[in-house]
UniProtKB/TrEMBL annotation:
Identification of the protein by name: N(6)-L-threonylcarbamoyladenine synthase
Compartments, record wording: Mitochondrion
Catalytic activity: L-threonylcarbamoyladenylate + adenosine(37) in tRNA = N(6)-L-threonylcarbamoyladenosine(37) in tRNA + AMP + H(+)
Keyword Metal-binding: yes
GO biological process, one term: tRNA processing
GO molecular function terms listed in the Swiss-Prot or TrEMBL record: metal ion binding; tRNA N(6)-L-threonylcarbamoyladenine synthase activity
E.C. numbers: 2.3.1.234
Pfam family, one: TsaD
Domain Gcp-like: 59-232
Organism of derivation: Cuerna arida
């Protein structure tokens, strides 16, 4: 585990980061471009393998997602080594499908962006390795992404939200409340301390053996508990 975390930390070293992009954002949070800029983004922070081609106007040109949900439902929750292996098996095809959907080649994008943190280290390393591989073979800049910062900024793709703004992110074990001061500066107000809220529901669903009931078999623990509770007798 220590070697994995060290590898992720090294990904932030100067030779691996598109410094011009980050410094430009810091100096000019409302940065505009003289031409359309297209980014290929890779996300493997947990249990889904995702890729999207997005331009600086916020338009999604192509996207692809491989869900691991059915596999993890069999185990009653996410097992990190299993998630890693599924990411490894899917990532090349997911990226190809996103590029095909955008009718583009890797040479057509301007940079490769990949989730660096937070998330499951075993899952993150697969996306980082493949993103850096694409960056190397295409000679495109590589941009490591803090995906909670990315979640916070997503609203600006669809609404004219000005800085600063308050953001509440409910994202598994990394839920937080923060003030977005700019595209690169966030004031953390509070955050979850350990496990994801949904993990408690997964464990409760396992103890209740809800997967033994056919209609709950394809649901996550939280969804199964919510549906079962909605059918209960509140006066019992």
């Amino acid at each position: 585990m220590q070697s994995i975390c060290k590898t992720l930390q090294l990904s932030l070293s100067p030779q691996n980061v598109c410094k011009c992009f980050r410094s430009a954002l810091k100096n000019e949070p409302n940065l505009t471009f003289k031409r359309s800029v297209t980014i290929l983004g890779i996300e493997t922070s947990c249990d889904d393998t995702g890729c999207a081609i997005v331009n600086n106007e916020g338009h999604i040109l192509g996207e692809s997602l491989h869900s691991q949900q059915d596999i993890h439902l069999e185990h009653g929750g996410i097992i990190p080594p299993v998630a890693r292996d599924l990411h490894k098996a899917a990532i090349q095809d997911v990226v190809k499908k996103a590029l095909d959907a955008a009718n583009m080649k890797i040479a057509d994008v301007d940079a490769i962006a990949t989730t660096l943190k937070p998330g499951l280290p075993l899952s993150l390393i697969i996306g980082m390795q493949y993103g850096k591989h694409l960056s190397k073979i295409s000679k495109k800049p590589f941009i490591p992404i803090h995906h909670m910062e990315a979640h916070a900024l997503t609203i600006r793709m669809v609404e004219q939200v000005e800085f600063p703004f308050l953001v509440l992110l409910i994202s598994g074990g990394h839920s937080l409340l923060a003030v977005a001061q700019s595209a690169t500066h966030f004031q953390l107000i509070g955050q979850s301390r350990d496990d994801a809220p949904g993990e408690a529901l997964d464990k409760a669903a396992r103890r209740l053996k809800l997967r033994n009931i056919l209609e709950f078999r394809s649901m996550s623990g939280g969804q199964a508990i919510e549906l079962a509770a909605s059918r209960g007798n509140p006066k019992a």
